[in-house]
Structures are given as C-alpha cells and as structure tokens.
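Notes from the pairing session

We agreed to fold both candidates in a single pass and log them together. This is the raw record for the first candidate, unedited. Please don't reformat it; downstream parsing expects exactly this layout.

Candidate A
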Amino acid sequence: MNMRALRVMKVLFKRDFLYSLYSFGYYVALFASFFVSSFILKNFLDSIGEEDILVSAYPLNYPLYITLVIISLYLVIISGISISREREQGTLEVLFYGPVTSGSFLWGKYFKDLCLGIVALGFTAVYFYLVSAFTNIGFTMGLVKALIMSIFLISCVVSFGLFISTLTGRIRSSVLALVAVLGSFLAIQFAYNALLGFEKESLSVPMLYVRQAMSYVFRGISWISPFAYLSRGLDSVVLENPLLYLANIVYALVYSLIFMFLSVYVMSKKGVKA
C-alpha cells in the first residue's frame, strides 16, 4: 500500500470513526452490555450471600464474556452494513471516482471499527474496575489478559462483518445474511451439544452417524465463526497456558488477514454499484 492509499485510508477512517463515536447506537450497545453484566453479577453476588462461599479464580470473566458478546454483535452488525449502506446510498460510487481503492476503503473501515471496539474495551475496563472496587471482587491479572485478548477477537468480528458486507448490495440483505450465517452457526452448535447429551448406547446407528457428521461440521465452523474465537481466547486465559494464549492471538490475526484479503478481492470483482 503506497503513501497515497494510506492518506486516503486515514481520511476515510477519521470521517467514519468520529461519526460512529458520536452516534447514539454505540452508547446504547455499551449500556445494554453493562446492564446485562450487572444483572449477572447481581445473581452471582446473591448466590454468594446465600451459600456464604466463593470458589472461583475468575469471578468476573463470565460477565466480561457476556459484555464482549453484546459489543461484538453490535460491531459485526455495523461492519456488516457499513459497505452496503454506502453502496445503496450511492456514496461508494462517488468515492471511487477519486483516488479511493478497494484496499484503502476496506482497511479504513476495518481500523475504524477496530478502534471503536478498543474504545468500548476501555469503557469495559473502567466498568469492571468500579465493579471490583464496590464489590471487593478481585480485578485479577486474568481479567487484564482477557481484555487484551479481546482486542484480537474484535478484529475477527470486524473482518467477518466486512466480508459479509462486500457480498451484499443492500442493507437489508446484509442484515439478513448476517442473521442467517450467525443463526446457522448457533443452530449447529446447539444441535451438536444436544446430541452430545445422549449416551452413545442410547442412540441408533443412523443418529450416531449424524452425530459424527455434526462433529466434523462443528469443528469446521469453529474456525469460521468469529464468536468461536471469542470463546477459545477467553478459555486460554482461564487455562493459564501462555502458549495457548499466544496461539489464539496468532489464530485471530491470521483469521482477520484472510477475511480482509477476501473482502478486498470480492469488492474488486463485484464493483461499487448496488
């Protein structure tokens, strides 16, 4: 990428970042994530009060996971509609009459959404620090590692959302595509977990084959779904395995690069018109 493309990317980044940062929806998503986490924390503290015992090395990790899921859902949606919205409004075609290329445009969008995620993580860190101060639940090093890992997991979510957006021409089709893809991932995961709940001896032979086939599909999805990287990344923090922690960061970076290069390729082939 040459200096001219970098300048274009910087201009696009600044334009979209400030617009999104001052938007009402961004803070609604943050408030919703903290509200749900507070509800979970309240139940958690109530259970401690009833049983008068706490055995957990990472008491804030599950509320953090829920917070990250809600923030990630918001980011994947705004990434998923960011290109189709400009394509539908015609601004994308106008931009490409200038020095804008598919690469500079998409990488500008990527860094904009990634920085929005990092700002959201900053608010999240402050929120959990205050929770820790008011409840005496430890703000552990594990939580800090989980927050650092979250930067790379948000990168996966953003690159996946941008890829979906390059495939679609309108906002409605982008949203429907995201709902269909993410819904399929969740449905397969739910079905596979349900089949795992049965004893092997209680299943008929055809159902055993179905369960085996589902296990292969589930393994494949675990490398495609950005939310699978979220679960694996946070699991590596709980397992306290430094090599696994670093491996998940590398996986997330590779995932993001693959989907960004695919996005640039698809957009170059598809063009800018809706």
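Candidate B (folded immediately after A)
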Amino acid sequence: MSKKKNNVVPHGTKSLSTTRANRWGWIFTAPFGIVFILFLVVPLVYAFFVSLYSYTQVRGTIFTGLANYKRVFTDPIFLNGLKLVVLYTIVMVPIQLLFALLLALVLDTMKSKFASVSRLLYFLPYAIPVVIGALMWGFLYSKDMGPFTSLFQLFGMKAPDFLAPGSIFGSLVNMVTWQWTGYYMVILYSALQSIPTDLYESARIDGASEVKIALKIKVPMITSSMVMVTIFALIGTLQFYTEPMVLRNNANSAIPPEYTPNMYAQALEFNYNQMNYAATVSFALGLLVVIFSVVFMVLTRKQSGLED
C-alpha cells in the first residue's frame, strides 16, 4: 500500500507568490502607465477643463459650464465638417475593407516567393509617413508638373484637375486608400493564416471550388478581424486631418482651413486664438468618435465574438 503524497501548499506560500508576481507586473507596466497618464490622461483632463471656460476681451476668462458644447452642436462649420468626414467614412471604409480582403484572399492562395514580395509591396505605402505620402500625391496631382498631366498630353488630351473643388473628394479617397489598404490587408492575411488547412482539404474533397471556400469558410472565420479593421478605419477616418492639411498647400480653393472638425479646431486655436472653443470642438469630436465606435461594436458584437 503506497502512501498518498502530500501536495498541500503551506499556508501563505501561494499568496506570497501571487503578491510577488503582481509586484513585478506593476513594475513592468509602470513606465507605460506613467507615459499614458502624463501624455494622454492629463492633457485630456486639462482640455476638458479649458473647454468649460470662455474668453472675452471685456470679461476675460469666465466659467461657462457646458455652454460651449451647446454652441458646438449648433455650429454650422462644425456640423458641415462632421457631415463631410461621415461621408468620407461611408465611402472610404468599405473600399479599403474590400480591397484589403481581396488582396488577403489572393495572397493566401499563393504559395510562391512572389506572394512574400507582393505582401511587402502592398504593405509598403503604410510604412511611408503620412506627411511624405501626402506630399508625394500632391506632386502627382499637380496640374503644372505632375506626371498625370504629361501622360494625358501624350495622347493630346487635357489632364483633369485633381485638386479642383469638384474632384478633391475622390483625390483624397484615393490617397487614403493607397496608404492604409496594405496595413488592413496584413491584419486579414494574418487571420487567414490561423485557419486550419484541414478545412480547405475537406472542402476540396467535397468538390468545393476556391471561390466557394473563400466565401463559405475563409471570410466567415475572419469576421472578428474584419470587425476590428473596420473599427480602426472608422476611428481613423472620423479624425481625418493629415492628408487634407498637407494637400491644402496645393489646393487652397478646394480645402478650406475648417475642412474637417480637426482642422477646424486647429484653425480656432492658431488662427483665431479661441483656445477654449477649440478644446470644445476637439472634445465634442472625440465624444462622437467614441459613440460611433461603441455603437458599431454593439451592432457587430455577434460577428466580433464580444457577445461570448
């Protein structure tokens, strides 16, 4: 008869080990926590504090509570900018998601070295800083020295003005799609790589075509990644700023200083010296972005897996 081994942990040993692990966890995360508080939480709190005040030359800076927020949601300039970024979101996000998904599905079926090179080439625009990319597209769109003008002239045609008020929307959509599609493609491609290949083999044995495998197996199994990519694109587009701000140097008539809410906040602060109202515009935009994102996550909680 063998003796039963006594594995009872002495009282206090487990709690001591847990305490030590928690301590190291706090030590390792403390640098990020400090940076997070100093450069995100504190500026946000300060901006909200500033947004509760107003400045007049007669009375100076006075506390006005939520009056600035009441003003911003009836401000036609802010509302027009908000409508514009919502329109950009409706147009750009589906285009980016569709191109990223198609590229990821095509690359997932390729097993040659060409697939690796293609992934790198598609991802390359994302590696270029947004400002540099916008400057490059500003040159390409240029009516005086852009290559598109020379190309059209070769065929005796007049080049379209990509920076005119009527075409600036499409020019910006093209620019942003070029910059971000590769990044979203990499995320979806990584999700496709996690799917067991046995499923594909079983489907092929049952006579399923590659298109049917893509539509019935691959796309449904990466839905959570598609939801995540959509949220990224949604947040980024609603905060549209860098591309129109840089391109404005070449398209003053098409892109006014208050083209988007972020540009409006900057113009208020640096052109009109209205710091309090600029903080209010920024906070109002941030609040709407959070609401949009939360609503989208709630509506897609089943597809994203959050429901579980």
